[in-house]
Amino acid sequence: MKKNNTIRLTLLAFAFLIFGEVFGQVPQVPSEMRFADLTIKINEQARREIQADVDALYRNASYFQVKAERVNLYLPIVERELRAAGVPTDFKYLAIQESSLIADAVSTSNAVGFWQFKQGTAEEVSLRVDSQVDERKNIVASSQGAARYLKKHNAQFNNWMCALVSYQMGLGGAKAYFGTQYNGKKVVEVDRNFHWYFKKFLAHMVAFEAPTVMLASNSGFLEEVQVQGPTTLKALAPRLGVTEAHLKEYNKWSLRGNVPDDRPYSILYIRQGAQKSVPAIASSTQTQASETTYSPPARYISSPPANPYPKITGNTQNSTQPNQIKANDLNAIKAAQNTRQENLAQEVGLKEGKFRRINDLGKNEKILAGEYYYTEPKRSKAEAETHVVKPGETLWSISQMYGIKLSALKAKNRIREDRDLKAGMILNLQDFRPRNEPIPMVPANEYRRIVAGEETSPPSKTLTPKTEAAQNPSTPSTSTAERNANRVIHTVVKGETLFRLSQLYGVSVDDIKKWNNLSDNNIRIGQKITILKP
């Protein structure tokens, strides 16, 4: 026994030694960054201030490692919920800043949980807070609430930086502080007088975006199942193969160990083994990871993979031009770039209001590059009979996928909100579901078969899984980079920025811009970037 303890202590000491060596490489704050759809220019005084915060986060190696392990557990879920709500995934670092991802964190002002909501604000974003349940302590529900809050505030500013600061100041406070000077602006200049909360956020973004975070050695990953009560964590524990104490530790939102019957709740537990080496943050030494690790596929294909929805026909090579393609036999266009609704509506010859109604868009929703938009009204039923919901999907994305009106999709399934949409649900696309008939779920083994037919990696789980890993390489590999003796040609994938590439290859942003004759920090998916070896 003493020999085994000696071996364990030796291995632990070795792990801390390796961590310490890399830990010494504190990431440096650049003079220019990308956040959401903004370019952030940082003057030298502000850069030194932010760097001091990054240094402070790295000062205690053991504390940083503990926090990094929580980051690798929780951020995949946070990122998924932000993406599903249409909020930039960079906001995932705000959850670290707010609570260090501690479920039952409580501030001096009595803000609670992962996203530090006060009770009134929590209720405003549809979180349940009472003597039985406190969804501020549920990473899924609270992330959905935070996304709703941020999206609502961004609609007032059309600037994600202002929306982020409003998270600390409130909407009224942010409006008084910023006025309208940043509304619609895409470049933000940060100096020593800029709001401290945003500078603190940039420090967390730099610190936890860095390769060091991947050194966290989790023994498993968070698995999620949807449970409709009434039941208890004690009753669920043997079914999930864990102890009651384990479920209580990762489900502190259930204040008395009960799962109510008003709607399905997300139950989380640590699943051992599979995917434990895949962190939430990209690293320079990974071969199969990216900023969007654990991101679910954008859409589920209800017919065989060879015949997906939306069905695109016509002159697909000119799909970004008007009157060239049909989606599901309806006139459509593929957005060439992120833009405003009025721009694309004008391009296709429609009034903005009509274009918005055809595509079930909110007034301030952006047009997203690569998405298909209809230029004639969608139908009241789809060609396919049913659709199995995949993680990350929304009612809007499903309606666009099949060319069915959003109101018709909701009415047929008697479902009104995205928060009620669960992975594995079988939605009707043609017939109305009888009143009081619950929406059926795909059996676990059938769900796994469906996902396996679409993805190259096996799904993670069980009843209603929501944490399948999507492989989206962002590190040098045979598929994304071509090497020769002096340089690397890197092909940009989704989520990458010049800053991330600089961290990936250990070079500066300015050098990458110089080598590639780039006039700004904007890069696009599929672009070839030359990296010269240091």
Explain this structure to me?
By secondary structure, the chain is α+β, with helices and mostly antiparallel strands. It folds into 4 domains: 32-213, Lysozyme, CATH 1.10.530; 220-272, LysM domain (Membrane-bound Lytic Murein Transglycosylase D, Chain A), CATH 3.10.350; 301-452, Membrane-bound Lytic Murein Transglycosylase D, Chain A; 487-532, Roll (Membrane-bound Lytic Murein Transglycosylase D, Chain A). It has 17 helices and 16 strands. The strands form 6 sheets. The protein has a 4-stranded antiparallel β-sheet with strand order 8-9-10-11, with no helix packed on it. A hairpin with a 3-residue loop joins strand 14 (481-483) and strand 15 (487-491). The longest helix is centred in the first third of the chain and has 25 residues, at 61-85. It is globular. The termini are far apart. Mean pLDDT is 78; it is low at 7-23, 274-307 and 451-485.
